[in-house]
Design goal:
Blueprint (H helix, E strand, L loop, with lengths): L3 H12 L9 E4 L10 H22 L7 E4 H7 L4 E3 L13 E4 L4 E5 L3 H11 L5 H8 L4 H10 L3 E4 L3 H6 L1 H7 L5 E8 L18 E5 L4 H11 L3 E6 L9 H4 L3 E5 L5 H13 L2 E4 L5 H4 L4 H7 L4 E6 L14 H8 L4 H4 L13 H24 L1 E8 H12 L20 E5 L2 E5 L4 E3 L2 E2 L17
Parallel strand pairs: 1-2, 8-9, 8-11, 9-10, 11-12, 12-13
Antiparallel strand pairs: 2-16, 3-15, 4-5, 5-6, 7-13, 14-15, 16-17
Helix pairs in contact: 1-2, 1-17, 2-16, 9-16, 14-17, 16-17
């Protein structure tokens, strides 16, 4: 029998978008991920939300409401790496000094995958980039003091807190008061997108999605939209790269570069926005404002826009503009400390994958899909906001429920069926089967991954 946590999470994630998963959805299989937290249930719930939202789109365009099938083993597998290289390897996404370090009074995680974040941490510590030198320097700091110093220097760090500490923290309190998905309908209306040609097999065929996201939740969302047929154009600034995740996260997308700080790049980006049906962005809350692309500009530029945004630590409270990533949010909220608190680990023990990123990414995709369905019915756009910290709060809420999930003693064996072949710039690869089906619609990507900046910045 399925644990109550699975149903609770599906109720919460689908309910946040006004979706009902309890009729017309078949959940197959058993959980496969070994974790103290119900991360398999989180995977299934987030993919289910995307599947039900896909059915909403098909119904809105008059193609009927299909039966849905969600495969638990495949949901779990897609929370890891869906793409498997054949004869080549993907570089590690982690910088050599990124990770958890013991402090005078606890633990801290340094996130140094971006060169400027690494440089900020090293400036604060006053050492070179040798891991043992970093560890020795960190050991002389109190955790909270070092966290504040690295953040003030422009870097990324998070001390390990307990869930109770986080609940008392001003930011934890602010996040707890936010909805899982904040949605607003915009007043502006627009006619149906000219290029959109939905079909039962490809619900988003021809829909234009402007992707302003980086690792990892945002790219998960836009990858799913591409899998349903959308024309996804990802824009990155000059010089930015994510070699450890680009093969996985550019599947089905076109990729281009623009410098939006320059007049020509700004104008081109504004022109792309004017033609887009959906905008997905994952920068800090004030980043687009600073580029002259705030919410009012976006709505005026593209009436009826479906606008989905993400940040790490929530949209209110003292950390609303703080840089953050999945691993840092797991430290801040106490998820990574479960093993330490229960005496089963000697150091932080995060989820077995970046579960907050993936779950929030599928929920972002579901928010985009429900926005598309709503606009189809009345022409009005939607603005949706999500955060990793709010997803973490939902996971902690279920963990703390009377029927608290327990670590799997014997994770179920995954049976995921045959993978498909994929061509990439780096060599051959295979791709997992899709985690859900909506009638005859299934996730399918018309093109393989590409290096960032491979395409022109045009529709």
């Amino acid at each position: 029998m399925e644990a109550e946590a699975g149903r609770e999470l599906r109720d919460a994630l689908c309910g946040a978008l006004g979706l009902d998963w309890r009729s017309g959805v078949r959940i197959d299989g058993a959980p496969t991920l070994d974790s103290a937290y119900p991360v398999s249930d989180l995977a299934t719930a987030s993919v289910t939300a995307a599947a039900v939202a896909t059915a909403e789109v098909l119904d809105a365009v008059g193609l009927g409401r299909p039966e849905l099938t969600v495969d638990r083993a495949l949901c779990d597998a897609w929370f890891g790496m869906a793409l498997t290289p054949v004869g080549w390897s993907v570089p590690s996404p982690c910088d050599p000094i990124a990770g958890d370090y013991a402090t005078i009074d606890g633990w801290i995680r340094l996130h140094t995958n971006a060169p400027h974040h690494r440089a900020a941490a090293l400036r604060v510590l006053g050492v070179d980039s040798e891991r043992e030198h970093v560890a020795a320097a960190v050991a002389r700091w109190p955790a909270e003091e070092l966290e504040s110093a690295v953040v003030a220097e422009g870097g990324c760090a998070a001390m390990l807190r307990t869930p109770a500490d986080w609940a008392r923290h001003p930011q934890g309190s602010a996040v707890a008061a936010e909805p899982l998905v904040h949605r607003e309908r915009t007043a502006t209306q627009d006619a149906a997108p000219a290029r959109w040609r939905p079909s039962p097999e490809r619900p988003l065929a021809g829909l234009l999605v402007l992707d302003l996201t980086r690792v990892l939740a945002g790219p998960v969302a836009t990858r799913l939209l591409a899998g349903l047929g959308a024309d996804v154009l990802r824009i990155d600034p000059p010089g930015w790269d994510e070699p450890g995740v680009v093969p996985e996260m550019t599947i089905g997308k076109r990729t281009a570069r623009l410098d939006a700080r320059e007049p020509a790049g700004h104008d081109r980006l504004l022109g792309l926005l004017a033609g887009a049906d959906v905008l997905v962005h994952g920068y800090r809350g004030d980043a687009l404002e600073a580029l002259g692309l705030g919410a009012a500009v976006r709505e005026a530029t593209r009436p009826g826009l479906v606008d989905v945004s993400l940040d790490a630590y929530g949209w209110s409270g003292p950390w609303a503009r703080r840089r953050g990533f999945d691993s840092l949010v797991q430290m801040s909220t106490g998820i990574a400390g479960w093993g330490l608190r229960n005496g089963t680990a000697e150091r932080p023990t995060p989820l077995p994958m970046q579960g907050l990123d993936h779950a929030t990414g599928y929920l972002m995709a579901a928010a985009a899909l429900t926005g598309i369905a709503s606009r189809t019915r009345d022409g009005r756009g939607t603005a949706a906001r999500l955060s990793l910290a709010r997803t973490a709060a939902e996971l902690e809420r279920v963990m703390s429920s009377p029927e608290s999930p327990r670590r799997l003693t014997e994770p179920a064996a995954a049976s995921i069926g045959p993978s498909s072949e994929l061509d990439t710039p780096w060599g051959a690869a295979t791709l997992l089967p899709p985690p859900f089906r909506a009638g005859t619609a299934t996730l399918h990507w018309d093109r393989g991954p590409s290096e960032l900046g491979s395409d022109a910045a045009t529709w």
